[in-house]
Write a structure and sequence with these properties.
Blueprint lengths: L5 E2 L18 H8 L3 E5 L2 E4 L1 H20 L3 E2 L5 E3 H7 L1 H4 L5 E4 L5 E4 L4 H8 L11 E10 L14 E11 L2 H21 L4 E5 L9 E8 L5 E5 L5 E3 L18 E4 L6 H8 L7 E7 L5 E7 L6 H8 L3 E2 L2 H6 L17 E5 L7 E5 L5 E7 L8 E3 L18 E15 L1 H5 L3 E3 L5 E3 L1 E8 H11 L1 E2 L2 E2 L10 E5 L6 H14 L4 E3 L6 H11 L3 E5 L1 H6 L1 E6 L5 E5 H17 L14
Parallel strand pairs: 1-29, 4-8, 16-18, 18-21, 28-29, 28-30
Antiparallel strand pairs: 2-3, 5-7, 6-7, 8-9, 9-25, 10-11, 11-22, 12-13, 12-22, 14-20, 15-16, 15-17, 19-20, 22-25, 23-24, 26-27, 30-31, 31-32
Helix pairs in contact: 1-11, 2-6, 2-11
Length: 584
């Protein structure tokens, strides 16, 4: 079916010459400037016609990939009763980001950031037999999160579009099969949206489960820090295994050194004239049982609080007053002479360092040469540090490289976390009631739109991949009198008949304004028609992605575009590129 030709004179696409003051990154600036969206409130946006077309195309790609692996689309309410969240135990655990409200009858509800509780309650009374498993259900819906500081436009907003899917299984093997299918589908979604991405090891956070992978679109504006290796290993620094290499300094006996005014590792290393990797950093906190925990990591690394909580059974840093109550001194903590009952956990990399440079547990003093076993003991060794570039790859041992990424999707193996707490069971083939084994899988649809812009933009504006562009071709008549506009109308109609989505800039604007808006909005192919070209029998074609221009004989233009479309559809790139236009 031929799509109608869009007219810029009729489109509600108000472009801006300048970026709004609160826009910080490329996607935020350009989506506003290109007339794709408008801010309604902090972290809340309205999608205008062109932005909504892009959003709908990303949703269409997601639906196609979900349907291809047998997932079935449903729609659940955004408004969820609090009692479901109390059943799972997350009403209090989720934190202040959960948008909570009460109705006129004082019944508590939340606006869903995710739907594990609701989907579990949906199936627990009707999915009763192993014969009905496995089952995968998904939806594309608005989600809500009460961000303390919304920023970066669509990357950290309070209202966002998300595809969330949930699967139910009788066996772990069945869950693994769906998990792998979803992972492949998520890779396909990234590729079809034109994203340079990495699947990375991740932490499951508030969702739960032990096995999870994030799909990260690489971008300097990304909030997530990543490490990756040429062998294919990649991880979020919050979750990646840290294999670091602290260095030994002075192993000839315990020496107490006055360090007046020294409170940081950087200051200590400079004072002693040694690298930070030769020092040891101490952090004190309490676990969930209220027990004093003191942790030690190499001085050139940071404590990973997720790993710390896992190792200690919860970990909350002590306040200054609490430290004083234990007789601990900020900036001068160490393992020698700790309060009685303190549980010492050290990063496993320090086990190979026989003597440490650490605080002396006395204000203004540090120890050099504090020896494990002689001067202090360690109760437990664990991976506690945040991995960073330069650490060894846990797969091949080579130094890791660093990058930043935007999380666009994530897959989780939930196990029985929700089915057990909410009493969701099925009758297995052995005749016994068993809890569902579950998986969940999320795609940030609106986040993906922002990630595409971060990777596909320049100083002039957006350069949409063909697969998600609001239209494939923009026909730009340089005049509205004489033969120019009728020829432009004819060419636009011919391109539409070929299956292209076409817009014609029929506004009464100067050519410079039309060119600037075409680049800003990011139409992948621009077809420029002027009287001089018509006199010579040519049309100018410009590819937005590369900026390449070419004069094409008018007599062969439509045939060339038809050929380019067939070739692009048949190629691996799909609609990702039309460079074929310049290869003939």
């Amino acid at each position: 079916m031929t799509s109608p030709v869009l007219r810029m004179s009729k489109l509600y696409a108000p472009t801006l010459k300048e970026s709004p003051n609160d826009a910080e990154i490329a996607s935020h600036k350009l989506l506003l400037r290109a007339g794709m969206m408008r801010k309604t409130a902090s972290g809340v946006y309205t999608f205008l016609p062109l932005g909504y077309k892009v959003l709908a195309k990303v949703e269409s790609i997601v639906r196609e990939e979900m349907d291809a692996i047998g997932a079935q689309e449903i729609m659940m309410p955004a408004l969820q009763p609090a009692e479901l969240w109390h059943e799972s135990g997350r009403w209090n655990d989720y934190g202040p980001e959960l948008m909570r409200l009460s109705d006129r009858h004082d019944h508590d509800f939340c606006l869903g950031p995710t739907h594990e509780e609701l989907i579990t309650s949906l199936v627990r009374n009707e999915l009763r037999s192993y014969k009905q498993l496995p089952l995968s259900l998904y939806q594309i819906q608005v989600k809500f999160r009460d961000e303390i500081r919304p920023r970066f436009g669509l990357l950290r907003s309070r209202e966002f579009i998300m595809k969330d899917a949930y699967s139910f299984h009788a066996t772990q093997e069945s869950l693994q099969e769906t998990y792998d299918d979803m992972s492949r589908a998520y890779g396909n979604i990234c590729e079809r949206c034109g994203l340079d991405y990495r699947p990375v090891e991740a932490d499951s956070g508030q969702i739960g489960g032990k096995v999870t992978t994030e799909f990260m679109a690489l971008a300097p504006a990304g909030e997530a820090e990543l490490v990756h290796c040429s062998c294919g290993y990649a991880a979020n620094t919050e979750a990646g295994e840290c294999i670091c290499h602290p260095t030994l300094y002075k192993n000839d006996g315990l020496e107490k050194i006055a360090t007046p005014g020294i409170h940081t590792i950087e200051e200590l290393a400079e004072f002693l004239g040694i690298p930070e990797s030769s020092t040891v950093k101490a952090l004190s906190g309490k676990n969930d049982e209220g027990k004093l925990i003191v942790m030690f990591v190499p001085g050139d690394h940071e404590l990973n609080e997720i790993k710390a909580a896992r190792a200690a059974g919860g970990f909350e840093l002590l306040t200054d007053d609490e430290m004083e109550g234990y007789g601990l001194h900020k900036g001068s903590m160490g393992p020698v002479g700790l309060p009685e009952g303190a549980h010492v956990i050290a990063d496993r990399s320090l086990e190979s360092v026989p003597a440490w440079v650490v605080g002396a547990n006395e204000e203004g003093y540090h120890y050099v040469g504090a020896a494990i076993g002689r001067d202090f003991t360690v109760d437990e060794w664990a991976d506690l540090s945040v991995v960073k570039p330069g650490d060894s790859c846990p797969v091949c041992g080579l130094p890791l490289q660093g990058a930043r990424g935007i999380e666009v999707s994530q897959v989780f193996q939930l196990g029985t976390k929700y089915s057990e707490s909410m009493g969701a069971t099925f009758m297995d083939e052995d005749g016994k009631e068993k809890p569902f084994i579950m998986g969940c899988y999320g795609v940030g649809v609106s986040r993906t739109v922002a990630a595409i812009v971060e990777q596909h933009s320049d100083d002039a504006g957006i350069a949409w991949p063909m697969s998600v562009a609001p239209a494939h071709v923009c026909v730009i008549p340089l005049a509205l009198n004489g033969d120019v506009l009728p020829v432009a109308e004819k060419i636009a109609a011919q391109l539409a008949d070929l299956g292209f989505e076409v817009v014609i800039d029929d506004r009464k604007e100067r050519p410079g304004v039309k060119f600037a808006d075409a680049d800003l909005i990011g139409w992948p192919v621009q077809v420029i028609i002027g009287q001089r070209g018509l006199d010579n029998g040519t049309i100018e074609v410009k590819l937005r992605r590369t900026g390449d221009k070419r004069d094409v004989p008018m007599a062969t233009f439509v045939e060339m575009m038809s050929f380019a479309r067939r070739q692009a559809k048949a190629s691996k790139a799909g609609y990702g590129t039309f460079d074929i236009l310049f290869d003939r």
